[in-house]
Amino acid sequence: MAAAAVDAQMPEQQRRWHNIRKVLERSGPFCHPDFEPSSEILDFLMDSCKILVVGAGGLGCELLKDLALMGFKKIHIVDMDTIELSNLNRQFLFRKSDIGLSKAKCAVEFVNKRVPGCEAVAHHCAIQDLDEGFYRQFHIIVCGLDSIVARRWLNGMLMTLLQYNDDRSLDQSSVIPLVDGGTEGFKGNARVILPGMSACIECTLDLYPPQKTFPLCTIANTPRLPEHCIEYVKVIQWPKENPWGNATPLDGDDPQHVAWVFEKAQERATKHGITSVTYRLTQGVLKNIIPAVASTNAAIAATCATEVFKLASSCCTNMNNYMVLNMADGVYTYTFSAEKKPDCVACSNTTRILEVEADAVLMDIYEKLKEDQAYLMKNPGITTVINGRNKTLYMPSIKSIEERTRDNLKKKITELGLYNGAEILVADVTTPNTIAIKLKFSDNVDVEMSR
Amino acid sequence: MASPCPKSPEQSEKNKQYDRQLRLWGDHGQAALENGHICLINATALGTEILKSIVLPGVGAVTIVDDNIVSDEDIGSNFFLESSSKNLNRGSESLRLILELNPAVQGYAVQEATDQILQENPDFFKNFSVVIASSLGEKTIQSLSHHLWEINVPLIFCRSVGFLGSFRIQIKEHPIIESHPDNEQYDLRLDVPFHTLFDYLNSFDIDELDLKDHGHIPWIVILYKAVQKWQISNSNSWPMSRKEKNEIKEIIQQFKRVDDNGMPIYEENFEEALRAVNTSLTPTFLPVKIQELIYNSSAINLTKESSPFWIMCSALRAFVEAEGKGKLPVRGVLPDMTASTDHYVTLQNIYRNQAALDAELVYRKVQEIVAQLHCDNITETEVKLFCRHAHDLHLIKGSCITSEYQFSNTVSSYIARYLEEPDVMMVHYILLRAAEMFRSEHCRAPGEWEPESDIAKLKTCVSKLLTDISCSPFPKDDHIHEMCRYGGAEIHSVSAFLGGCVAHEAIKIVTKQYKPVNNTFIYDGASTNTATFTF
């Protein structure tokens, strides 16, 4: 065939990338306006463009493979986890003999071997262990995490890297695009975030489904579902009976622990006439297991990889900016433009304001930071500056300080030296930065009158 | 050290490995998958991406049919080839690397051309659960789809060109018992309570209960009592309109206890009852979809060859016409609701027991039919599952791919309708077909060597197709340009997306759970857009 004759004149390396070179070296009617086809684009992808993949799990394995076959060579991947048997139904770079090893290292080793020229680098650590300097080196970051908190932290980190010009406009060269994917069972989503420019993770917190919890009174007094019985054993019976001694915490990965909970939950269920407590359900409730399958991960990771390729090459316009995928009934996708929140805690670069009653206690602020849709924090630590000195109001994450500051929660905020317009500084696992928030008393009039 | 846990129901290795997916399709879905045998024609990047997501969850076996030799381009886009694979058979090489993913899966490679197999050994295909094909020429796809339609083996035909992709599922008839709908309707029978439910609901006197019990009555009881009270002044009719439902809400409000200041006391179960007024007062009826199924000729004219699905549909019809009094068997599932353990468990058992009784009746009818027809036995478990999901049964009736190539009247007018809208995704379908026609005429992909010179030629192919379906030419050539830009390139991430989707659909077909695409899916990675068409 004539095509073979043309091919034969090309060196092997060029023939290997023949497929993607067509879309990089030829222009088309739907290209990004900035796109100028040339062979230099592939050189850039291969030699200069640095990509960080966050997470080496179901999505991470797919992403690493996809990116390596899209021409990227300088790929870093970070994951603190080690390989488990239950990963092998989808995390295809790992084998049984790899169980217990670092996910990031195994994934990198495999892909570098399979795709000649690929120079992927592994980081077997938590994302919080890496600093601004580390994150700043990348052109694009792709994220395949199962934790919302980690996503929010990373989002916050990219906001930290933003720089503003003297006229308060955003310095676009400081923007590192974030492509984020997530899956749950047969559903998933993929999105493109331009930090400071388009909707970020914090702008769209309400898109995450609320966590399923069972009220304590139900599990203690009126259990109806097998899940209620399992929760009861986990929350009440385990600490009370302390079955392994020494206040050993319940470990959902320890089959002995799971079996103990399973048996006790079955006992409780039988006593109340409740059926269907199974070992699988017990494990699911204890570890909050999210179902996962190879196919959904493949589709979402591929969507993310396509967007990285577009960002790096400008060969097409990017999705704008959020795609949902549902593969339970047929295969359905929907792409929409998530809106940037003008007062977003993470990306708005404006002063945050928290409205509180003038006679509120510190606990009210603490609860608001946890429950308000704009914050949804986990264990916010609250400090303030009074007369030029830092004062810790409440710090839940460090045991000794927690004990020392616990009583403040019941005190009126005015007693603690806070006033209308005062600034509190809040730290939380959901963000790498301390967030400054101005207090605004909602019933100011009363304050005046009471004085 | 002595463990506080003497008997540990240790899970099997296999259960641990597949845990995350067993939560989606259950042990019986997994067993069906492990009995499946998938045939892949052509180990392209798209082909191996599909197999990857079928082998990982543990399909029984895979067979790759491929007579191509591995090229540098193959290695560049296909993860399941390595540098040393060059010049070897593509099917055997990718099979070797794919089987590493899961030692439980059997694998075979056949180094023959599809056309040759179709001519010399057409029976080769008859034992596969699904045949998946990519990169086939116009002629081969027609003879393959015709043959698989005749022998009743499902086929998924897929394409990946540049940022575009598609797959088409060809399956004669695909019944789904477990369709796993996102929002399952309750089956509470408040309008027609069966005997035990009737007795239970009437055993309550809301006004007599002390406050603690009052807060523990299941909302089902509250709703029933409210309707009863409403019916006294409404000649025993059933509340249907919004106005009538608001009257029910009023009555529920009156049921609430009040505190010393006359303010209603907040009780979660009463709030739940108020919310349920809009969703749970729908009268019990036989859904049209299910009616069509049980009166389908396949369920009426049974033969020895009838599938278990149709036999069960027939038994279900007999139940509906007799004991069911026009209604399906009780589903037997009670949603969670605020209630004391006693009330909840009692009510749950009332529904469950009735469901078991109804399923038992259906099972007896199945046994009678099986005895009459002398066909294979159907287990009680199967019948129970069938009855549990009787409200959500789903049947897909497919069409043969050749009808698209022959442009039957239905196909032509269907395409024309979408092109007039105009639907850009249908334009993509035409372009994929035109590129295929180009290849069979010119022995290469449009733009494979040089994009500009092929634009006119591809435009001729598009015109031919549009003439065949009596459509006017496209006003602009931009999509033709774009297709020539692609030059037949297979982009890995586009194939990886489609690979995930196609594997997923194959698993749905093999496990007979969840609804597959009916029947054509188009993907445009450039605009991140997808569409489903039914040819």
Automatic annotation (TrEMBL), chain A:
Reaction equation(s) it catalyzes: ATP + [NEDD8 protein] + [E1 NEDD8-activating enzyme]-L-cysteine = AMP + diphosphate + [E1 NEDD8-activating enzyme]-S-[NEDD8 protein]-yl-L-cysteine
The enzyme's E.C. designation: 6.2.1.64
Record key words, sorted: ATP-binding, Ligase, Nucleotide-binding, Ubl conjugation pathway
Active-site annotation: C217
Pathway in which this enzyme or protein is active: Protein modification; protein neddylation
GO BP terms, alphabetized: protein neddylation
GO cellular component: cytoplasm; nucleus
Domain E2 binding: 354-442
GO MF assignments: ATP binding; NEDD8 activating enzyme activity
UniProt keyword Nucleotide-binding present: yes
Pfam families for this protein: E2_bind, ThiF
Family according to the record: Belongs to the ubiquitin-activating E1 family. UBA3 subfamily.
Function recorded in the entry: Catalytic subunit of the dimeric E1 enzyme, which activates NEDD8.
Protein name listed in UniProt: NEDD8-activating enzyme E1 catalytic subunit
The organism of origin for this protein: Parnassius mnemosyne
From TrEMBL, chain B:
Keyword field contains Transport: no
Biological processes annotated in GO: protein neddylation
The protein's name in its UniProt record: NEDD8-activating enzyme E1 regulatory subunit
One Pfam family hit: ThiF
Acyltransferase is among the record's keywords: no
InterPro entries: APP-BP1, ThiF/MoeB/HesA, ThiF_NAD_FAD-bd, Ubiquitin-activating_enz
CDD domains attached to this UniProt entry: APPBP1_RUB
One MF term in the entry's GO annotations: NEDD8 activating enzyme activity
Domain THIF-type NAD/FAD binding fold: 18-531
Any one annotated GO CC term: cytoplasm
